[in-house]
Amino acid sequence: MNLKSKSPALYYLQRAAFYLLVIVIGVYLLAPFFWAVLTSLRSPGDLFLTPTQFMAAQTTLSNYTEVFANPNFQRGLLQSLIVAVGSVAISLLLGAFSAYALGRFRFKGKAVVMYVILAVSVFPQIAVLSGLYTLINTFGLYNNPLGLITSYLIFTIPFTVWVLTSFVRDIPGELEEAALVDGASPLQTLFLVLFPVMMPALVTTGLLAFINAWNEYLFALTFTSTNRTVPVVIANYSGATQFDQPWGQIMAASIVVTVPLIILVLVFQRNIVSGLTAGAVKG
Amino acid sequence: MTVNAAPQPTKTRSIAAARARQAFWLLLPTLIAIALVAGYPLYRTIYFALFEANLTTPDQRTFIGLENFWFTTDDGIALGFLQDPKWWGAVKNTLQFTVVSVFLETVFGMIIALVVNSAFKGRGFLRTAMLVPWAIPTVVSAQMWAYLYNDSFGLVGRGLLGGVALLASSNELLGVEQRIWAMIAVDVWKTTSFMALLLLAGLQSLPGDMYEAADMDGASKWTQFWRLTLPLLRPALLVALVFRSLDALRVFDIMSVMLGNVSAARTSMTGYARQALIDNQLLGMGSAVSVAVFVIIMVIVVIYVTAFRVRFD
């Protein structure tokens, strides 16, 4: 404010530079996504146009109709949904139990358990790839969504336990004490008293774990052949020949699997930021 | 992780013991699951690393000790992967990828966080825009950028670079060392906003009156950043750095999608391990490489945590 009266020219120059920076950041963050959306709405022949002609070219939904007609993509969506929902549901249930124990109970060895869970969350997936691959084959789970659901627990469980624990710790203790005084068992306390309070935390954590499972690539590529999830389908999306990449369709498929995530993320914006920081900054 | 610092309750011993028992039962399912999906597979990977076996027939294995790591035949042929220059190339490229991309993400993330933390019109919009690259799956962002890099259609490849086939393996002019920069650009775009989100949360927890005091004392914004903001942001910054570095060291998706699995084996440690294990069907060798990747990453974690005294609580 001082600068505004002292030297207006410098002040407005500073503001202009600042807004220029804001615009550069906005363009940097959104331009690649915008271009992908635009490409998904153009016919393959338009790809050769110059950028300005390309933007002005006619909008068509043909890429989307072709993508949705593609049986691999249809199956991929279904597989992704099954795998992500399955692994998230299991981890939320187990994670809530553990978070309750870790956030509310005092017992020996708690620090050790927390360290083990933290260590697993930094495990490189490749370290278990060969062990899991042979196990999955032994149990006949290769190319089976159950195999992926199980293997995804390696990253969804530590994440949910960690984030939920930090939420549970912040719940006031009176609630639970009242339940205990009334003679409720720990499970009753958890399900009837804490779960309703934890609902926002469960939604946020579940959403973040869902995004991780939905995006996973290495296990999906390695443990399935035909029952592929969407990241693998999109990575291998091919045209008529090897050299003919159907970019319009690839972009359409990319938008289809991304837009639900973006909408969810925008709806739960506030919770997500607090969930992320609970998971990372606080530990 | 601090043990819960609640005030010592005046409970009797038996209640404490009962609570401990209940906690054990609550934790048991998680511990069993972790043992099954992480502990036991890790043990098997380490075990298989000492054997020679085909991926399809793990039961027919021969114990060869550490020969997967280092072994020279009588004819002087080196068979261990530690003797393979391609492995060391993958290690070098992964480390370069990690150091450069995490550095750039931190700098850009800090700039974005500082901008969004100040008051201006359109702040809410920028804050929302930050979430977009983060929400996009890695494979999708790799495909989006592969398209942008494309030499005949891409905005970057055709426009900025004038038709250089940055990714095509047929382009003999570009080695893996040059292509790694294209991968770094993708990773920086995708994860800068994650970094910015974490730093922004840290910034918003800083006391505002501290800056007012600094203003009164005539400290410039520049001085305030280096003397106040950065030191106070250190804990948040370090934890973000650890998580980002670990993620970058595990990189595989971007290389696999943009360059294919063969080149991914030369640019990412995970890619090299996966090629040995899956594409070449060498269970023992693939496991040995995986163990090496595991050890490298764990050593880096320990260095980080001890050198910066990162505290996770």
Q: What is the element layout, followed by pairings?
A:
The complex is a heterodimer of chains A (283) and B (313).
Chain A: H1 2-6, H2 8-40, H3 51-56, H4 62-69, H5 71-104, H6 110-121, H7 126-138, H8 145-170, H9 173-181, H10 186-215, H11 218-223, H12 230-235, H13 247-267, H14 269-280
Chain B: H1 13-48, E1 51-54, E2 57-63, H2 85-117, H3 123-135, H4 138-149, H5 155-160, H6 176-204, H7 208-216, H8 221-249, H9 253-259, H10 261-267, H11 269-279, H12 283-308
Antiparallel strand pairs in B: 1-2
Helix pairs in contact in B: 1-12, 2-6, 2-8, 2-10, 3-6, 4-6, 4-9, 6-8, 8-12, 9-10, 10-11, 11-12
The span between the termini of chain A is 39 Å
From N to C, what is the helix and strand string of chain B?
Answer: HEEHHHHHHHHHHH
The largest pleated sheet of chain A is described as:
none
Give the strand content of chain B.
Answer: under 5%
- What is the CATH class name of the largest domain in chain B? Mainly Alpha
Count of DSSP H/I helices of chain B? 12
Q: Please, what is the average pLDDT of chain B?
A: 87
Q: What's the CATH topology label of the largest domain in chain A?
A: MetI-like fold
What is the number of independent domains of chain B? 2
The topology string of helices and strands of chain A comes to HHHHHHHHHHHHHH
The CATH architecture of the largest domain in chain B: Orthogonal Bundle
Features:
heterodimer, A: 283 residues, mainly alpha, MetI-like fold, 2 domains, 14 helices, 78% helix, B: 313 residues, two-stranded antiparallel ribbon, 12 helices, 4% strand
Explain this structure to me?
The complex is a heterodimer of chains A (283) and B (313). Chain A has 283 residues and is an all-alpha fold. Chain A is 78% helix and 0% strand. Chain A has two domains: 2-62, no CATH class; 65-280, Orthogonal Bundle (MetI-like fold). The radius of gyration of chain A is 24 Å and the shape is flat. The two termini of chain A are 39 Å apart. With 313 residues, chain B is mostly helical. Chain B has two domains: 42-83 and 282-313, no CATH class; 85-278, MetI-like (MetI-like fold, Orthogonal Bundle). Chain B has helices spanning 13-48, 85-117, 123-135, 138-149, 155-160, 176-204, 208-216, 221-249, 253-259, 261-267, 269-279, 283-308, and strands at residues 51-54, 57-63. Chain B has a two-stranded antiparallel sheet. In chain B, helix 9 packs across helix 10 (261-267) and helix 11 (269-279) runs antiparallel to helix 12 (283-308). At the A-B interface, helix 2, helix 5, helix 6, helix 7 and helix 8 of A face helix 1, helix 2, helix 3, helix 4 and helix 6 of B.
